[in-house]
Amino acid sequence: MKEKTLTIYHLNDLHSNLTQWPAIVSYLKKEQARHAERSTSALYVDIGDHADKVHPLTEGTKGTANTKLLNASPIHHATIGNNEGITFSRADLNKLYDDAAFTIVLANLFTLEGERPAWAVPYDVVELEDGFKIGITGLTAPFYPMYDKLGWQVEDPEVSLAEILPELKAQSDLVVVLSHLGYPKDEKLAASFEGLDLILGAHTHHLFKEAVEVNGTTIGQAGKHGYYIGQMQITYDPKTKALQHKEGWAVSLHQHETDEDTAELMTCIETEAERALNQPLIELAKPLQIDWNQSSPFGRELAEAVRSWCGTDIAMVNAGLLLDHLDAGTVTAGDLHEICPHPVNPCTLTVTGAVLKETLQAACTSRMINLEVQGFGFRGHKLGFMETAGLDYTLKTREDGSYHIKDIKIHDAPLNAKAEYRLATVDMFTFGYLYPGLAQAAAKEYFMPEMLRDVLAAHLQELSSLNG
């Protein structure tokens, strides 16, 4: 009997780059029609971070716009990324897939009571006409403190996979993992587990124009923002169901034609989002100006907003989080989203005076002020000047244009290098390389689900009422 082929199309990390979505759907629909004409099998999956609140359609509809767009595409299975998992409140995530026409596979997320969410299954098995069975599971990156704060219990992906893999293998001829863990974790899974035929990856935005083989597992990932679609082609014996060959690649969609029905659907959804975003929030008596290169009124208000929200004596926030100024007059939810679109939350951490001084000095260098940051939830242009609240210091400009900080005081008391201070800042500083002293700090507490723009709105509303 002649061998058969199965093609799996995989998308990851769109991050609500919805200008690319009509091209993606056009390509998938054409491939779907081609497979139907040739009577060959195909599956279509999304591997998370499809929804990103940086886009007004996602923000204004609490992500349901993304679900509607997926419904109108060939996608039939998906898992969630950290943008779905930890930038939506538990209530909003529970509603996000109410009307989904596709199946969410997710093995490592539970309620605090240990129950699986009603909108997801740990795995699913798809059977083709010839009886060939594909077992599909999903795993998401375990941001433990964030999920806990939102009322979820996220499990170690390796533990979850070990629990379900025996039954999944017993029911399947091909085992597929939709992994929003990142390529290094995918490599580890492939090395640690036998019988993972395919890992379709996400999270780290790797672009594999040719799939990678690790311990017999074929791994693919298709970059970010929907400019590529990943494809895996599997050849198998239809009688014995034995796999004969696996290969994968990525297809560029940079200049692909668009699907008109999808474009029209997006226009309809825009009306719903605009209603929510046009809601007036604040009446500003005077404009608030922002300057990324030095301290400015709007930057100082942002630092004070974070300090007040978190209930600390001091705060540090980078000015680059504010993308523009605010004019006097009515400020809407859409205005705040436009100038502060980042999925970033406030947080507190315990640091020594020495770490505070070290961080401030590093933050005031030209390199850090002008650093173009990608990732950590930041959706701006450059990091910008570090604004503070509750902290006073003397800033001197050297001959080379760099800054030197001296005479640091906290509420008029000199900074004590050995003393510990509770600092309010933003979560992006706790994730990586930007400020090691903050990333390594103790007793981190994240304030969720409110985003930075929500904190800013509350602060400006209070100011408006005081000035009323």
UniProtKB/TrEMBL annotation:
GO biological process: one example: nucleotide catabolic process
KW Signal (keyword) present: yes
Molecular function via GO: 5'-nucleotidase activity; nucleotide binding; UDP-sugar diphosphatase activity
Transmembrane regions: none
Domain Calcineurin-like phosphoesterase: 7-206
Alphabetically ordered keywords of this record: Hydrolase, Nucleotide-binding, Signal
Keyword Protease tagged: no
Record-annotated 5'-Nucleotidase C-terminal domain positions: 292-427
SUPFAM superfamilies hit by this protein: 5'-nucleotidase (syn. UDP-sugar hydrolase), C-terminal domain (SSF55816), Metallo-dependent phosphatases (SSF56300)
A Pfam family recorded for this sequence: Metallophos
Cellular component, GO annotation: outer membrane-bounded periplasmic space
Entry similarity comment: Belongs to the 5'-nucleotidase family.
Protein name: 2',3'-cyclic-nucleotide 2'-phosphodiesterase (5'-nucleotidase family)
Organism: Salsuginibacillus halophilus
